Amino acid sequence: MDTENKLKLTKKQKRELIKLTVSAVLLIAAAVFFATVPLDYSNPFVFAARIAVFAAIYLITGFDIIKNAVRGIFSGDFLDEQFLMTVASVAAFFIGEYVEGVAIIVLYGIGELFQNIAVGRSRKRISAIAALRTDTAHVLENGEISDRDPEEVGVGSLIEVRPGEKIPLDGTVTEGFAGIDTSSLTGESNPVNVAPGDAVFGGTISTDGRLVIRTTKPLAESSQEKVIALVEEASMKKSKTERFITKFARIYTPCVVVAAILIALIPSLITRDPVRWIRSAIVFLVVSCPCALVISIPMAFFAGVGKASKSGVLVKGAEYLERLADAKNIVMDKTGTITSGTFEVKSLACAVGVSEERLLKAACVAERASNHPLAAAIENYCAKRGIAAVSGEKIEFREYPGKGVTAVAGDDVFAAGNIGFAREIAKYGGKYGDAAATGTAPEREINGFPGNDGFPENTSGTAVYVFENGKYLGLLTLGDTVKQGSREAVSSFKKLGVESVVMLSGDAESECSAVAEEVGLDGYKSRLLPENKVEELEKIISETKKTTVYVGDGINDAPVLALADVGVAMGSMGQDAAVEAADCVVMNDDLRNLAEAVAISRKTVRIARQNVILAIGVKMAVLILAACGISAMWPAVFADVGVLVIAILNSMRVMK
Amino acid sequence: MKKYIKIEDLCCANCAAKIEKAATAIEGVTSCKISFMAEKMLVEYDDSADFNGIYKEIVKICKRVEPDCTVSL
Predict the structure, then answer these.
(1) How far apart are CA A214 and CA A236, in angstroms?
(2) Whether the predicted pLDDT of A437 surpasses 60
(3) Nearest to A481 by CA among A589, A342, A372
(4) Most confident listed range (A270-284, A391-405, A529-543)
(5) For A513-529, how does the pLDDT look when each residue is reduced to its tens digit (9 = 90+)?
(6) Helix (H), strand (E), coil (C) string for A366-435
(7) What are the residue boundaries of the structural domains of chain A, listed by start?
(8) Nearest CA of chain B to the CA of A599: how many Å?
(9) ipTM of the complex
């Protein structure tokens, strides 16, 4: 264990620890000593000494508890645990069980202290997210550097970030290059390279370069503060389990206390054996506090939210974490979620007698001047295969929006475009542009195509048909690039128990089916308008009646995100609108992080449920035994303190 | 309006629930949520309400339920 992780106790905790140790040691000593002295009521000195010694030990730890209990009575809610423990221990004294009486209070104190330390530690560990903050910003003013609190740095200030330092505020790079470690915000481990003009986010680290940044946001609105605020607020949106526990605690304590009173009175009157039944009543009081539950459940959820944020997923409420754990349907948008939104050439199909090289060369010449994303993809592909457009010649380009492009180089006319464009080329031939413009060209025979107007219908992706002087050379099929990890994420979802993973997209059927197959989806719907997406999602929800998660980019998808049980926005670092609209935000755009978050949510919920069952189960068992008159004090104390310790330790497992 | 209030050294979640309940009853407060783990309270109140008054009430409640805790803005 390194020094930072060492248990640092506050003064108050240290004081408690000393008091408890002293009481415990004295209690054991006294118990051993008095066990050797025969209980002789005829000797008033021994009798009184016995009471005095145990009472003194009792007061070492018990004094504060009694004080608080008395205060509790005056403040109007006397059913607090300190009151109950006081009554239980005093009652134990009353029936002559001195050792037990002191033990109840000492063990209760130990439990409280442990709980205190555990909560403090997990707060610290979880607020590792608070380590996103940095205390100083080096502000550049009139050529001079002054260090200031980031809170005092205005928007538009220039600040310097030195290698290895944390960026204090969101901003734009004006000077310098660096690899930025964004893992604290996004969970992404590869550094992102930034250059002047790029946006950088507060809380990320410049690993190797000096940067000058012009701030774009005040501290309160910077990325790291938002992340911290969201994680903290998340624990205010209570999960179903937490709400159940709160309700349970409200009913449980009064019921057990009433039962304790009844047990102390009624059977005693009947059996004339009050000591036995008062013991049972004490057991009731000892286990009447639902502490283990009340504390371990929010702790588990808080840890779960914190852990998810470490993996780059912000879950905006414990309730969403709980629903995520229960996810049965995952519905995703295509572009930006499963695919990266950039195109690449997937396949080539040459016409009879045409080489791939000739096809690509023609495509390259035709597309060279175009800014269309498809053109860029074609150019990249050609460059990769070592094919370059012939340069040197004067080339005349023309674009036909929504159709394609033509390029005239010397006597040759190259053309590339979609199926509609191809049909028109087939009609008008090489001099397509002029002919289409004047509408004068005579209809001609389609030459070189497989059959009359028989263009091969591409089956997957977007097709670009290529021509040289009106002769069909072949087609290039392009597709959106599936993001690295999408397939892996889908299979992780499945392994985690998600029943169906489907895609809703506005894109063409062929494009969608290719993506669906590549990542292994259970189904997809293509050509959907935004309002259709809402309908489709409604249908899925009403048909399956199971927890449905929608994953989208968070900006165009706001209505769908709101409709789903959990709306997840992807790749939203720095996009406030998306963060606002979603219940859950994946900071970078890696779906695998979402799968990780689902895994974390399942673990959290599992641990929370274990704690509920353990705590309620053990307490009920003890209550039933006590009600039957089998009242053992030690199991009761274990049921209270031991279960608390186990439940807290169990909750802390979420962080692992 | 929304405001965050820091409540440190709250030792039990039960106390947090009590404070929450009592603070929600303050006139002008529409909702009050405490994150026991984050040691923070989020109060929402009517625009017309006087925050200083509300804050004083909240401090009083906290001191009553848990004398050891420190409240700050």
Answers:
(1) 35
(2) no
(3) A342
(4) A529-543
(5) 888 998 999 999 988 88
(6) HHCCCCCHHHHHHHHHHHHCCCCCCCCCCEEEEEECCCEEEEEECCEEEEEECHHHHHHHHHHCCCHHHH
(7) 341-481
(8) 22
(9) 0.78
Looking up tokens 């219940």, which residue turns up? A583
Question: Would the pLDDT of A450 be above 50?
Answer: no
Task: Give the position of tokens 């059996």.
Answer: A271
The yes/no answer on whether domain A341-481 falls in CATH 3.90.930.1 is no
H or E segment and range at residue A343:
strand A339-350
The proportion of chain A whose per-residue pLDDT surpasses 70, expressed as a percent, equals 89
Predicted structure pTM score: 0.77
Q: Residue A502 has what pLDDT?
A: 94
Picking from A119, A236, A294, the nearest residue to B42 by CB comes out as A236
Residue pairs spanning A and B at CB distance below 8 A: 54
Q: In A, which residues are within 8 Å of B13 by CB distance?
A: 294-295, 298
Which of B2, B14, B66 to substitute to test the interface with A, most A CBs within 10 Å?
B14
Q: Which residues of B touch A119 (CB under 8 A)?
A: 11, 37
CB A304 within 8 A of CB A654: yes
Which amino acid is residue A653, in one-letter code? R
Whether B40 sits inside 8 A of A232 (CB atoms) is: yes
Residue B42 to residue A115, Cβ atoms within 8 A: no
Selecting from B13, B34, B42 the residue whose C-beta is nearest the C-beta of A295 gives: B13
* Active site annotation includes A333: yes
Length of chain B counted residue by residue: 73
| Residue A528 main-chain phi, psi, to 5 deg | -100, 135
Q: Which fold has domain B2-72?
A: Alpha-Beta Plaits (3.30.70)
Classify A504 as helix, strand or coil.
Answer: strand
Q: How many other CB atoms sit within 10 Å of the CB of residue A435?
A: 18
- Mean pLDDT, chain A, rounded, equals 82
